[in-house]
């Protein structure tokens, strides 16, 4: 299997693949492409991004032969998790996927000017990262910004275009009085003007209902051109987004994201097998080979319980987010902040405060990092009085240091942020304030023990300066796998019976004995 | 709260409620009604029908005020479960619901000529059952037959009409080369001719995909009249049926079945809250008050884990049923039959044999009891040679004793069934062979200790002659609740740690000691 064997090596080809004319000629029969997220977002959403490469490798051949448009397998939180928890070089992971997925596009999630880190990077660092990712095997770059500020996407998109790879411009879907279909379509138009190869509607909180999914997809196709690929990414949390994918497809969506069923649903994604089956008889069809998906499903069904220590508790649906706008992760953060202060009873007040703070900040979508910033400020407002204390991050958000929001900010709160932070409000692109930093980063990185002298290592240091030193030092010990055999649990059909031996040190009358209790 | 307070006491009213003309005038805005199945099918599908009445009573006021078209709360397996496991009089349960749900229609599932038992009953018994159910508080009777033989529905439907209650004629949805949309629509037409108040599309195995859901609903509306209410019941097992509900609604469906989310998904139903949210902005809307549903959700979220001993293991999706046609319950039955014979390795052959046996039998839908009959014969064919041994039930199925199937049966196998059973093939309605039996049943029932002399007790004995004697004897002890506090489980975030004390008898060096291990 060589790279030349890849089914569709030219990322531009897909742009005309589903041309409107061709669809009409085929009389309503249209191929819907699928991106499977099992190798990235599925385990990020369901098992805290902890899956080790060795648990993914055995499924790669099946996944590669399943006929997916792409396999999302890198970026998001995986880079952080690799070096922080798994002692695994993320670049080596990327090269492994490239090698094992010769027929399928690789895909990553990139936070625009933040890359995979948590601050804005100067343009030359962004350029270097994209160049290296492309060189190590990345095909499709899904680029987004938490505030939907197109200026925070522009450098990354240009850099992807320069490599000849597929640049996907992303709209983070959210709802508010100012977030209308028209506004999102305008953003898509700006992204198309930047030269993106496709548009992604990214619904990270499962807020995208069927009707807006239809209207938004249709709006983008009408205003940006029927040939502009629309790629829809939904989570499953609220239980409505399988329907949203159907309506987006009816409106013309070209590609949808799903995940192999054994790692799907809950805060994860809609199941791949169900999406394929759902389309039967509709005139839409996929090229996915379910026999291959079943093999991957059986593999991950065995892997999943071994990560029990990291698995999400949620398996059903959660619909109150439509009202509260607060993602589950943010809820538990706020709860623990309150409890630490002995004010666990104030949760309801905080929940009511969040939308007010969000409005003051110009209605940012609530995703990392804006969700944490808004949530923490709401907690502070309830505990200490309205805007009595402003966090540094909230002041930065109010003053434009994360980018611009769709709605104007509350001028009174902007004034407080100026006073509290002693900073000025900015209207320029945040990264414009940064001085060239590659050489500094490179010099610092190369001083670290275990640094291998590559630009890739400089990028690891640049994005994770706190974590990189330990990782470089311990890298030679090789990847860790945090999965463990399931701890014994009580068999729920036979209360009192364990499903595996359990060992105790039992001290009886002062004598310690090793006792093994096992099912008989 | 009196019966007079019920929102819509006349079951006929709903028939014109959504008239086609009215919809057109309202310009696409249409109310979609919801039947919530939390009190019957939800716990039948997810916790083996074991929920005790005392765990349902606290939620009734919220459910009654949520604005549902009806609450399915009786019939199916609940009658059996009440007397077999819960020592609860099913008629008392019905009266309790009637009292606690004054504003909402009560609804039950009735197996046509089988009532809630496992054989055909003579018409006067069917009539008596329906009369008593209506008198004790039942509003809507969903009447079905496992073979879709309309003759097996006719007596029950006439009996319901006689009481003035709502008679719903049901189509069991299945797929096969002979099951076309036209054939199902023909069945709907026959049911309408019988005078039903509505048509139910019952998708017990989650096989109804979006396109057939649309075509079937549209076909029924076109051929039977736009005013004929179409009520769609889907399970969630395959992960596609939320979309099927949407497409059925677009095609004109009036009422859909869902379940409060804390007892939904897996082999259960689509979540009520998600269905309500899904419709936002589509022009379709429900009258459901989500605040009431949230209260019921929180209640059942607490109840659910207490039934851990009965909970279904399945929480994700299962899509291979589209190919195999074999429901999950049937699969595990066949597996255990094979294993008991030491032939567990023959499962694959059996899976391939099932569709052939089903074809020989004229493609019956695979539901109780046809699924067990076909599955067991397939196991016999693989273990002992093709039709070397015929079960009595399979012979009866082949010879028409369960009713007629949509496709002709394999004449060679019919001949074998005749020879094996020494019975003749029948083409008449199976219940026509039965002699009046009420007086005999009544006389037998009244001999039993604890019989209370009512017709209701005769019916209990008629349907469950093996179980009724013990139930009558023990009834005065009152209902049992089989729920228990959750057994201790290992906290998955802290492997090795239990979430509750666990007691062991540990024998060390021959001395037995009671040891309690508890979290510290």
What this model shows, in words?
The structure is a homodimer of 520-residue chains. With 520 residues, chain A is of the alpha/beta class. Chain A contains 23 helices and twelve strands. Chain A has helices at 13-17, 20-25, 41-46, 53-56, 60-64, 78-84, 90-100, 123-136, 151-163, 181-193, 210-224, 241-250, 272-278, 290-303, 321-324, 328-340, 347-360, 370-384, 392-398, 411-421, 438-446, 455-463, 468-474; strands at 30-31, 33-36, 70-75, 105-110, 140-143, 166-172, 198-203, 229-234, 255-258, 284-285, 502-508, 511-517. In chain A, the strands form three sheets. In chain A, strands 2-3-4-5-6-7-8-9 form an eight-stranded parallel beta barrel, surrounded by five helices. A two-stranded parallel ribbon of chain A has the order 1-10. In chain A, β7, α11 (210-224) and β8 form a beta-alpha-beta unit. Residues 1-27 and 491-497 of chain A have low confidence and may be disordered. The interface between A and B is large, with 51 and 52 residues.
